[in-house]
Prior knowledge:
By secondary structure, the protein is mainly α.
Amino acid sequence: MADGHRNENTGSAQVVAQVGTLTGDMHLHLPRRQAEPRNQVPNPTSHYTNNERQLSEISAALLRPSDEGQVPAIAVIVGPPGSGKSATGYRWVFAHSNTFPDGVFYAPLGSGPDGAGAPGAESEALRQFLIRVGFEPREIPDSLASRSAWFREWSAGKRVAVVIDDAVRAAQVRHLLPGVGRSAVLVTSVGDLSGLRATDQVTFVEITPLEPESARELLRRIAGAPLVDAEPAAVEELIGLCQGSALALSVAAVLLVGRGERPVAPLVARLSREGRLVRGLSRDPELSVDVVFDAAADRLSPAEHGCYLAFGQHQGDGDISLEALAAGLDADPEDVEAHLDRLVAAKLVTRTGEERYGANRLVREHARRRAELHEGRSAEARRIRDRLASYYRIAAVRCGHAMNPRRGWLERFWPGLTSGGAHVEKAQALQWLEAERRTLRAVIDDDHREGRVETCVLAIALWPLYEHSKDFADLEETSHYAERLAEHRELPLVRTLALVQRGFAPLGRQEYAAAAELFAQARKLCTDHGDLELTATTIESQALAARGLGQVVRARELFEENLELARKSGNQQRVGVARMHLGSVAPASEAVLHLEEALAWFEKGDAVNTAKTRMWLGMRLGELGTAEAAGVALHRALDTMLELRRHTDVAQIRLGLAELALAAGDRDEARAQQREAQALYRSQGWSSQAEQVEARLAGPEA
């Protein structure tokens, strides 16, 4: 120490202590021998692909300027199981090991049966650290706290890197931190380490799924470009199945190599089958999707594990609401939400919206397979699946009824089914049905495979959704399921209604002859059993098909017959609908009377039929030359249908407005309305209607 330069140290020393007033003993823990800690981090894979962004973020977090603070910098790599977190960490250390001349330390924490990491893993890692720097095994203290203190003391003022693999809790990381100095800590996370933010300087770096081109490059590096490039379509499908998982892609590439000269497509077809993906990617325990996801699931508490199993039992491949999960688990939603937070932190599931969660196919299949391979879990999983299905059935019936409470068929066939439960507003019901559309279809598919009568219940309950969305494919298939099951169960009236619903799919596609054939079958079946209201429904449906075929006289006769039966039934709603339909084909002056009577009934609370009736009233008034009244009716109908988001009805009304404009000689307005209608038809996938409008736009009258 030179005079006048207190606090300045020259020369070299193992440990330097600056002390003001000291009372008692002072202990400095130094190794008895000098050692050169080597880099014990595993070598990176030679096939590492496209995480350059993450590597840059790690460098920005850990390679700090020399004048920056003396607290060790921490970077935490997060991502789903099999995403390549460890590979990214190894790659970064391999590229920057020379930056840390005092040593690169590696702590593989692993996983224990209690979900908290291998017992004593961090303590054993610290023991190995201390041995590597020169301490004798016999002199290393037993307690975790003492070992942690010794490592901090040794590393203070040095520049070291510590790589911590599979950390579950923030406390594990804190025990392994080096002392003050320009050191770096790189952590791969398998748990929620957000608690580190409270006490430490930390950067979180997320590993995201590989983009398709990067996934293809990884396959090329392992399996070879000739094999991968020979069947681009099959490889594209394989990449989609692997969902950007580096592990799944690596296993798939190894499978491709093992097939030799055989085509890729058969392998992809086999993996594509339901329940085959994870099994096919888990045959080798050394490189297995099952093993990696098992390790992640083993870290979960029993309650969290039950929540994980629910994603495997959830019907279909859509996301799931907190409400549905709570119903499936028969648990309090707040508790379930806490479990979901843990699954989200472990990157096993993702939040897809407010109180909605999703899991990719790898997770869903693994969760399902995990249940199947364990007898106790299998029984639990079955209960979860049954409760989930029950939740969706009950909610679908409630929401379908809320959308169209006057329809009445569910209550007619299964008395008491629509009673009870909280009131649901129509808009709320539609929102729920649209959000759960994919899952509801999967529930119907399951019920159909099992031959459950609930197939019929759901097919009828979901009519308002299909009628609103014009989803003719689902309408046709689910109604066909219901029709066949009703025939098997000897439920002729249910079968009749299912046939009618099925006929509305080709009717909506303007395949009027096919619709007429199904409606004729329904009428014959219903007539044989003498049900007045259902017979009226089949006749009304036949009339709609006849109208579509241009058989105006036949349509009018059928609509008149339908009105007569509606009057006999005493059902005023049915009478109103019958008058509305008759008003679409009767002579204009007579039609207006029917439509005005129907309107008087619908205005009491049926917004959709009110707007439909105004649409027809506007068109028929236009035929009578009362353009102003026709315009008022059509514009009022348009406002309602826009509000209700009934796009195809909006398009039809715009075509009616175009006809009015043409009659008034306003070609520009007519073309504007026709273009709006054409755009709506195209947006809804109604190509034939769009082509018809295109023909009108190109015609001389336009």
